Fold this protein.
Amino acid sequence: MFESSRPSEQVTSAPPRVTLRNYFNHPFDSAIAAARTCYASHLVQPEEITDKQRLNIGASTFFSGHHTVYQHAHFEFGLENISRQFVWSFLHAHPFYNSEQQSQRYVRMDRVEAYVPPASLFFDEASRAIYEQAISQGWAYYRDLSALLVSDAREILNDIWHVGPMSHPKRLHKIERSAEKRAIEIARYVLPVAAFTTMVHTISGIVLHRLWRMCSASDTPSEARVVIGEMVKQVKEIDAQFFDRFGTQPLEELPEWADQAALNGKHSQSEALAGEFDRKLNGRTSRLIDYSPNAASVIANSYRAVVGLTESQCSDADAIDRLLNPSRNLYRLEVLDVGVHAPAMRALQHANYTFAKKISHTADSQDQRHRMVPGSRPLLTLADTREPDYITPALLTRNPRAKELYDRAMHDAWRAKNQLIDRGVPPEIALYLLPNAKSIRLVESGSLLHLLHKWTMRTCFNAQEEIYAASMDEVAQLREVHPQLARYIGPPCHLRANVTTPICTEGSHFCGVKVWLDFPNTPRRI
């Protein structure tokens, strides 16, 4: 039995810190000026706006739903001391934002820093002790797993890169750094979703209005109300009327929570739902459950309509080849992802695919950044399971000691979470103790245009392991239903080989495997 040699550490917590880094100086008058421009003979400037226009145009646009004028103003926030659970459940649960977030994949989490709810949230002294001990223990497991997994990662990387005792010191150093990163990438699965993160987060004015209105629509309503409330407060300090003229407040009653009174004893229902979902996956990470059956012909017709060709001039197969073959369509090689701006590529919008998938909380936190492939994600508060329900990364299968430690970390996290719920602590608070490994079951849909971008980026060996596995599952199923489309899909190196150089776009981060020689049959080892 592997025992952690590390003593428990005190959890460092602090209130969320919100900094308004960049903003429009006159967001409300800018919105009214934009509205006036629609019906004016010239470009209306914010300085021209009168009190009467603020009153009349402001009310008529906002309350009638003409909200695009409030989208012009953007606000760039720095967010610190916020939980990853809050980010996943609320901030990144919609497509209308931009974030640059601290990576747990590549940044070692040395300090025990996490969200600790205030005592006012049904949190007595004994419950707080259970909560903080579980957080601290999660970090202890993280450090021990990091140490245990380095040698396994190093061994695999040495073999991939053909490293031996006589290899150049720079190569040995690079392998060692890569092994350490792989180790912490896997070890992070045991960290609690309460762990702090830091980010730059930019949203438009209308999105801030919506976030304030909907801040209870997540697993983290208390944290959301504090963070979004501070964001609203800071915008009011530069232009109070942007919010005060409308008097909108957070919704107190939401349909999702209508059956909360019936939640007692619901774990058996949640576990039955999880079992049903998993059986339908039939061993896959991601399973195709719906698609456009006539995708190829619809895409071809759309392409011909754009470029002015008849079917006799351009067959369906030729149209597909013109769109998807990178040797004929240089848009496929663009790093800027210009598909929605390219008239021809927009033909790919008309084919849609829907997948049911199961990945970890930490992997889904990355997956949801593909904002044009939206998903229906669970409210964990309503889908909590009494028994541990988690994903196990592949690297752990090589190391029995690490696997045993990992499984123990999972059971300890669930035990602490269940203890809090049994003590009457609301699930909202107890669920912060769940590990990053927590299974997330979701349904995700996208057009071929946006899935094409995702599948190009995420079938690369450098992609996160689970998202890679899901993407490979998805492309394999596309190959079954639409082989004429799937033959053109794969990682950047697959697209660029025999067309342009460099073949790999990852530069110094090249995985070391010539995937393009035998895609999709080349096995991923780490």
